[in-house]
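Sample intake sheet
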Amino acid sequence: MTTNMRRVSCELDEFEPQLYINNRKNEKVTTVILIEEIPSEFKDDILYICKDFILQDPAQFCSSINLVCLCDLEIPTELTSCDMLNLILIKKPVSVNTLYARIQNIILTSSDEGYIPQKLLDAACSGNLQTIADTACSLLGNPIIIYDLGFQILAFSQNLRPENEIYKMAGQDEQMIQQTMAAFFQVKALDTMREKGSSYFWKCYGHDKPLPEDTILIHAPIMLDKVIIGYAVVMKGYVDWDESDLILTDKICKIISLEMKNNYFNKNIKGMLHEHFLRDMLENSIEKREFIEARISTLNLKLNKNIYMAVIQSVNPTHLNSQLHPILKELGKIFKNSIFAVYTDHIVLIHHNNENQELTGQEQERLNTYLNACDMAAGFSMCFHDPCQIKRHYQQAKDALDIGLSLQKPGKVFFFQQLSIYRLFELGNKTTDITDYLHPAVFCLVNYDKENHTEFMKTLYYYIINLKALLKTKEILYIHRNTLVYRINKIQEITNIDLHDGETFFQLYISFKGLEFIAHRTNNKISFF
C-alpha cells in the first residue's frame, strides 16, 4: 500500500498539521515507524514519527527523510527548508500512539478502490466545485482544471505556489486554456477517455506550446451513469506522478460528477453548454478557427447551411427579467432548433435553416403575433455560413433592431438586409452632412411644391420606393392611373431627369432613404409623408 506526505497531511487535517515538502521526488510512503532517537539509516519510503524534534542539524541527513513530529517548539528555518526533509509538524496535543494508528490506517486504505480521502468528502459537502478543485490540488500536489463538455472552465485550482508562474498563467491566460483544449483534439484524447472510462497520463511534445516540452498531464473523464459530462486536466507542476495519482484522480472525478449532478448547470446540460458556447463567441473568449470548430465538434452542434443571428428585446427590461422562462419557452416553439442565450439586456439566438430567407412565412407571422402581445421586437442579421462570424452577425442583428425601432418601421421584426442602408447613413452622418449627397431633383421638387401647392415630391417618393410600380403607387396616393402618369411626366419635365435611367433611379432611391433617416433621427416628419 502506498500514499504520500501530502495525502497524509490532508487526512490529519483535524490536528492542524504544518506541511513542509522540500524533496518532491521522495514523498512516497509505504509504512510508518515510531522512533525515539535518530536511526543509523533512513529509508526513503518510510514515514518516521517522533514525539520531539530530534533532528537539530541538516548535516545529520545522509539521505532523504519523511518525518512526522509532535512538537510545540519553533523549528529552525534551516531545518524546515532543508532539501533532504519532508516534514509534517503537529503542535496540537495528540497521543503519539493515536497518531501512529491513524497514519497506519491511512496507508492501508489509501489504495482501496472504494476509499475516498475524508478531506475530499468534506470538500464535496461544501457544494462548491472551486473547493473541490483546491482540495484536489492539495491531495495530488498539482493543479487541476475542471471543464464542462463545451470546455467552459468550471473551476481551476487557486492554491498554487507563487514561484510556479506557468500554472498561475494557466488560470488567467486564455491562450494557455485554449492550448490545453486543443491538445485534447490533437491526440484524440476525448476518444481515448471514452474508450478507457478512466484517467491516464499524457505527455506534451514540443508543438504543444505554451506548455513546456515533456510536461506530463493527467486527462480524466468526469462521468455520470457511464456518460461523460465533463473533463479534468491535472497539470504536473510540483511533484512527480505515480500510478496512485491516476486512482486518486478517478476518485476526485467521482466527487466532481456528484457536484455537477447537483449543480444547476447540469439540470439542462445541453442547453447550458450551447448557451456557454454562444456567450463565449459574443465575448470573443474564443477566436481561433480551430478552437471554435473543436468546440462545435465536441458539442455535436449540427448547424444547417444558412445561419442567422437574432436579437430579441423587450421595451420594458423588467418584463424580460421577470418573464424570461415563459418567453424562452414560447420562442423555443417558434424556433425549434435554435440556440438561445441571455446576453446583457436581451435574448440572442442562432437560427439556422436550409431556406433562402431568414424566416418562413409561418415563422414570421407567429413571431410577429407573439412579439406584439409581449411588447417586444426582434432584429435579424444577414445570412452567413461560417460559425466563426457569429459575433459580426450578432452586431448586424442588433443594428437591425436599433434602426428598426428608431425609424419606427412597421412591424416587430426587422431585417438587416432591408435596413443596412440606414446603417451606412448612420456611419456617414458622424463625419459629414447627408444632405450634401442627395440628388438635386429632391430640392427642386420641394421648392416647386411650396410655390405651387402641389404634391410632386410625395408622388415621386412613393413611385421610387415602390420600384416604379404604377398600380401600387396609385393605390397609396388614391389617384387615377392617368393622373399618376401625368405627374411622373411633369416631374421629369420640372427636374430635367429621366426616370428610365438606372443610375438616376438608384440615386433617387438612396436620396429618399437618406431623407427617411434624417427625419426620424431628428424626430421630424418629411413634408410629403
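Comment: The first strand starts at residue 3 and ends at 4. The chain has a mean pLDDT of 80.
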